Amino acid sequence: MSEALSSETPLRTTFNIKLNGQPVSIATVGQAHQFLTNYNSIEWMEFRSLHDAAVTALERAADNAMMTVQATDAVRALFVSAKLL
User: Is the pLDDT of residue 1 over 60?
Assistant: First the structure.
């Protein structure tokens, strides 16, 4: 997991979202992983399966850059469901 947090592997897109009225840009595997794991798990409870899939995909992408498409898609699905995009 520490590899995923420090990964600078770029995602296939930059996610620009607003969190508490502040703009947040997420462009790398590490930024996405940090965003998804820093918040209390209760905040993601409604989207638990999508959250778990996104975190797993990000960890795989940290080990293998060819997995960034799947990681980007998993993060996008979570953000759309959570109405962050």
Answer: no
Give the sign of the dihedral formed by CA 25, CA 3, CA 64, CA 43.
Answer: negative
pLDDT tens digits, one per residue of 44-62: 889 999 999 999 999 999 9
In the numeric block, which tokens belong to residue 62?
């940290």
- Residue among 53, 64, 62 at smallest CA distance from 28: 62
The residue type at 71:
A
Do 58 and 75 meet the contact criterion of CB atoms below 8 Å apart? yes
By C-alpha distance, which of 11, 10, 78, 1 is closest to 46?
78
The pTM of the whole model exceeds 0.85: yes
User: Tell me, what amino acid is at 29?
Assistant: V
